Amino acid sequence: MSITKKKWFAALMAVLITVAYMPVAMLTGTENAYAADTISVKLDKSSASYTYGGSGLAHHYTVTVNGKTRQAYCLQPNEVPPDTGSRKASAMSDSSKVAKTMYYCYGYPGQKKLASWLSSHGHSSYASGMNFYLLSHVLLSYQYDSSTAFVGWSGGVVSGQISESYQSMVKAAAAYVNSLDDPAGFDSAISFSSTSGSSASTTWTDDGEFKSDNITLKGHEDNHVDYKVPSGMSLVMDGKTYSAGTSLEIDCGKTFYLKTSDFSRANTTYSSGTLSGNLQDYAAYKITDSGSQNMAFFAVDKADTASFTVKFGPLDIRLQTEAKDSHTDSSQGTTYADSKFTDTVSYQKLTPGREYTVKGTLMDKDTGKAITVNGKAVTSEMKFTAEKSAGTVTLEYDLDASTLKGKKTVVFEELYYGDLKIASHADLTDEGQTIYYPEIKTTAKDIKTEDHQGVTGEDTVIVDTVSYSNLIAGKTYTVKGVLMDKDTREAIKVDGKEVTSEKTFTASEKSGTVTMKFIFDSKALKGKTTVVFEDLYMGDVNVTTHSDITDEGQSIHYPEIKTTAMDEKTKDNLGTIGNKTTIVDTVSYSNLIAGKTYTVKGVLMDKATKEPLKVDGKTVTAEKTFTAEAESGTVDMSFTFDSKGLEGKSVVVFEKLWYEGIRVTMHADITDEGQTIHYPQIRTTAKDGKTGTHRGTVEKTAVIVDTVSYSNLVPGKEYTVKGVLMNKETGKPLKVDGKEVTAEKTFTAEKANGTVELRYAFDSRKLEGKTVVVFEDLYHQGIKVTTHSDINDYGQSVKYPKPLLTGDTPQTGDHSNIWIFVIIMAAACTAIMALSKKKKADDGTETGDDNKEE
């Protein structure tokens, strides 16, 4: 070869090596199939030349086929490099060493396999970039013609060989490639699969993020797809995490998974879109019209495509709650206006480092609806930042629970990230979320009547049956009760002490009953209604109360009766004497139970002896059964008896009220004026108006003064005494001039006992030898209430004497002429006294004369 030719060839090689350093992108687009054995291509080379193995020179060549650029390689390094321009290329046999080797060279599908081998055998500097291209050039030359593959260049001409070490590397690489499968039958098809099927599923991890199933790209190991990690996700492959926006190659046979903590991905499906494989159906071509140098390259057909989808399920953030009353520190609620409870929310699988809001609502376990107090739902919420994926946060609830007695409530909690609800715990059956608000109801009954009708007495017993619900089985409680006055709304006190009772029990079930007894003296409670107030304690905490002053079930009615006794005739408490006297006792009752049947039983009592009054050896009683139309009312009792002999006595009506055969109260006050009937008594002392004795004066204007003594009258009342003179002999009223001799006087009694005088003026001249007796009647309210009419009563009598006749000698025991003898005796005495005085006068005269003579 001449020097000129040598210089020309050296220049050509320099240009070829320069072109070899131009970066070339691997293309995965669609190409037309190449059916012809000869095709037209455009050949390009780098302006610079590159050295290898010490003295080897080469340019970087590429070919363009239908707009697609591929790597091209010189097969004869000992020849002058070809120029750029349009060239003809002929198909090579797929089974040739060149075709097989080129598949594993730089820029073609199997390059990673060869690059990996180089790196693992100490040649990592030749496993990428231009060094990999130059190595591929020498390797193809060696497979094409081993005798010319290792030539070196010097001064623009072939001179010697490249380094032994480079040759050894190429030979070893050739041996490795020859051991690989022939790519002529490789399938370019690709597909994705996951452990859950054609579409990958996800799980929500303990770290608080979605993790997809493992996804595998299936296809030839030399194939791959280019993939860009989507926004909000990351991809993990071979233990390495690729963040959102990262572009990477996914080789066939590789397994990867996606993960994200984007809550909005929940219940959505992600699609990768169409991804094209890098491995395409190919055909090896050789350019033979480029001068003395033959070139090799691959022309490729359309690549296969595939895609994958990931179905994101629901978020699996775990919430558990434990609700406790702040006072009992348990699920036993307290039913007061200032009740409080806390709900400790435990969360798991929550994405750390973010701010969340937990919101709670109190629900009615029975209805499944939100509890409302004063028209508002009972809610609470709190913001927090999760330091770890698992933790707790406590919400506090303040509420008026006085209206929640007997309700079972459940706390529902929801977890929000911003406005997005990401988790909830809303299980109506969850005991941990449940607060039991207890309720007690009481049924109080008198132990004797077994009803709400109390019995007044010293040994009264109220049995209060307390029904409870919504307690916690196995827990110990105490019921404490107190009796309240319904009218004053204050605790009843007996002997200065409240009436209380308490009982401690262990609840075997959530609902049940417990019995309380209140033992006390109820005599002072007549007419009062007591209400049993009960408080339920859990330990020292008062969890609920039943204190409804209007609750009939809690009430005991202590009846009261009062009586107003009156004589049927006088209409007041002054009785009338007679053989058929009737006392009407109006019994006023209060605090009875309307609709119930009662019996009033009465007895007349002798006020003086305090014993039952007996008439003809029998007590005087009455009774009446009635149904109370209202709690208060009256009932009349009639006592009919012979009252003769009761003059001057007072009787008191004692009444007892009975219910169901039980005496429930009584009115038995011996001093009660309202219960008392006074039977009056009168006595008279009649005397002549002149003699002042029972001997009358016979004259035209005779007067008898009758002093009427009365007793057992009711002071302040008005009375009238009416009298008549009776002829003792006939027993009939005395008549003078054809008219009865009468007198009367009306007076107001200042005291129960006293006197009043009546004067009878009449002509007694025809009454010589007769005796008149004064009969007196006492009237009240126009009714004769008693009389004094004993015809034989000396005190009521005045006797009128007969005239004393001459020769008549009064007989012993005859007092009719006694006054005549009295007058005669008086006259005789007067005469004697006169004679005595005269004699003394005469004696005195004589004595005086004697004194003078001396």
Summarize the topology:
Layout (H helix, E strand, L loop, with lengths): L2 H18 L17 E15 L3 E10 L2 E7 L10 E7 L5 H7 L7 H10 L8 H16 L6 E4 L2 E5 L2 H16 L11 E4 L4 E6 L5 E3 L2 E4 L5 E5 L5 E4 L2 E3 L4 E5 L3 E6 L8 E3 L3 E13 L7 E12 L2 E3 L6 E8 L13 E10 L6 E10 L7 E2 L2 E2 L1 E7 L5 E9 L8 E10 L2 E6 L8 E3 L2 E8 L13 E10 L6 E10 L7 E2 L2 E2 L1 E7 L5 E9 L8 E10 L2 E6 L8 E3 L2 E8 L13 E10 L6 E10 L4 E2 L1 E2 L2 E2 L1 E7 L5 E9 L8 E10 L2 E6 L8 E3 L2 E8 L13 E10 L6 E10 L4 E2 L1 E2 L2 E2 L1 E7 L5 E9 L8 E10 L2 E6 L8 E3 L18 H36 L1
Parallel strand pairs: 8-19
Antiparallel strand pairs: 1-2, 1-4, 2-3, 3-18, 4-17, 5-6, 7-10, 8-9, 9-15, 10-15, 11-14, 12-13, 12-15, 16-19, 17-18, 20-21, 21-26, 22-25, 22-27, 23-24, 27-28, 27-29, 30-31, 31-36, 32-35, 32-37, 33-34, 37-38, 37-39, 40-41, 41-47, 42-43, 42-46, 42-48, 44-45, 48-49, 48-50, 51-52, 52-58, 53-54, ...
Task: Please tag this protein with its features.
854 residues; mainly beta; Immunoglobulin-like; 6 domains; 9-stranded mixed sheet; 6-stranded antiparallel β-barrel; 6 helices; 46% strand; rod-shaped; disordered N terminus; disordered C terminus; TED_2; membrane
